[in-house]
Amino acid sequence: MSLTERGPVSRRRFLARWGAGTVVLVAGFDLVARQWVTEAAAADSTSFAAAPSLDGTLTFDAESLAANAHDQGNIVFRTPCAVLRPGSVRDIRKMVAFCSDHGIEVAPAGAHHAMFGQPLVSGGLVIETRSLNTVHSIGTDGADVDAGVLWKDLIEAAYEQGLTPASITSYTSTTVGGTLSMGGIGMMSSYQVGAQVDHAQRLQVVTGEGHQKWCSDTQNSDLFEAALAGLGQCGVITRATLDLVPAKQSARTYRIGYADIPTFFQDIRVLANRGEFDSLGSIPQPGTAQPLTLWATVFHNTGEVPDASHLLRGLSPVADTAAFEDYGYLDYISLVTDMYDAFAANLDWDAKVKPWSDLFLPDGAVEEYVEAMFASLTPEDLGPTGFGLIFPMLRSSYGRPLLRLPSGASGPWVWLVSVLTDSARSGPDPDFASRMMDRNYRFYQDAAAVGGVRYPHGACAFTEADWQAHYGSMWTRFVSWKNEYDPNGILTPGPGIF
Ligand SMILES: Cc1cc2nc3c(=O)[nH]c(=O)nc-3n(C[C@H](O)[C@H](O)[C@H](O)COP(=O)(O)OP(=O)(O)OC[C@H]3O[C@@H](n4cnc5c(N)ncnc54)[C@H](O)[C@@H]3O)c2cc1C
Fold this sequence. Notes:
The protein is of the alpha+beta class and about 500 residues long. The chain folds into three domains: about 30-130, Uridine Diphospho-n-acetylenolpyruvylglucosamine Reductase, domain 2 (2-Layer Sandwich), CATH 3.30.43; about 135-245 and about 475-485, 2-Layer Sandwich (Uridine Diphospho-n-acetylenolpyruvylglucosamine Reductase, domain 3), CATH 3.30.465; about 250-460, Vanillyl-alcohol Oxidase, Chain A, domain 3, CATH 3.40.462.10. About 30% of the residues lie in helices and about 25% in strands. It has 15 helices and 22 strands. The chain has helices at about 40-45, 60-65, 90-100, 150-160, 175-180, 220-225, 260-275, 310, 330-335, 335-345, 365-375, 380, 430-450, 465-470, 475-485; strands at about 30, 35, 50, 55-60, 80-85, 105-110, 125-130, 135-140, 140-145, 165, 200-205, 210-215, 235-240, 245, 250-260, 280, 290-300, 325-330, 355-360, 385-395, 415-420, 455. The protein is globular. It starts with about 25 loop residues before the first strand and ends in a 13-residue tail after the last helix. The protein binds flavin-adenine dinucleotide (FAD). Flavin-adenine dinucleotide binds next to β6, α5 and β13.
């Protein structure tokens, strides 16, 4: 068998069987046994392809494999056969080229906060992008960062210079590459500026054959579009230049509790249309007396006191009960991250099964959808923490074609509607997961019937036909980008698109 022979990797034969303990370095790949081997094993192999020399490490010790065999969802488990901790982009280039030559699947993994196995690969190679985490520069013209940088580190570094990313997700212990591959809906920042993918100026990408390319709207623009919200299908994002905007010093968040859904939507639409708040949304708690609390946040500098009577004018009488809290800017940005991290510390959160449903609904259908969905939720659907998300997004500010949103003229807004279920007990629970998967697919179908679209972070088993419907008019182009940039089909099998 020649060293360049290609072929699908047998996932079963690739299952790791190495002992726990010390880090075991990989010497290469046995092309007949289709498995990574140590130096000792390589000596006995007649079909051995030596792994490239690396600046970082290539390992297959049990601990490294186990750490890369699950994500936050704890629904899908896939064990890789080797883990790359790159010491340079060159390492990623070399190893992707090696895997492409030998038909070995590759999954780039950021912080593993996806819910449905998106960063996992059975038998193949996981690239832990977090080992490349340099913030190269920060300025008014943008931030130049490695893809393994955590958003929270970028946010802190930028704030020292009075700047902040244009779009900031609720949880910020995620990587730049991870959210740029998903979309990055900015719940802590303005609902009128698009997603994080709308604020990438240029990317460095390693394609599925190991070619390193820069891309932007004006250079290799197809690759740029294919990488942004591209779920890692066409390349590994290794570095990005991102928009930064001036940061304010403080945030004031008004909270208004609503007992009924129509009044909530009436008021949040008034505020969204007026555009005076910086961030708007709700973290609903269905099944409670006030299932919907509207969070309306305005950023301001010291000395500029927000005027509630002006900002909250013209709302329903319940808005008279609005309470507010003041935060320093960074404290506000980390509110949700701190809450999730407290769950992790106190509720064994990382080990819970999390069948999250994340959908985008068109403006004209959202209210009815939420009414019906809330009415259907059981205590099991809610789980111990029992909350969701309802956030408006200005449709016209989202421009990247692979971040799919409801189309059609049903008003300026689309809405993120999420149900963030977690399991009562820790550890894998296939029966619970299976019931929740059925439920999520039902949620998805109900949403799709009224023009809704899935945000592919959540847990929903899609058929090939579902993926085609998901990408709609972009499907043919996505397929041709996949063929062009990953001709051996090795990249990122987790989402199950191709
Ligand atoms: C508590 C919580 C809150 C969240 N809040 C928000 C929110 O407000 N807005 C929002 O939009 N999302 C939110 N998410 C979803 C989150 O942004 C995505 O799951 C994101 O992909 C996680 O980033 P990560 O670094 O953990 O990526 P991973 O989970 O490791 O990877 C996600 C996908 O991207 C691919 N990938 C990772 N790195 C790269 C790379 N460098 N190049 C190419 N492909 C890559 C992986 O293969 C995988 O398919 C939240 C998730 C959690 C758990």
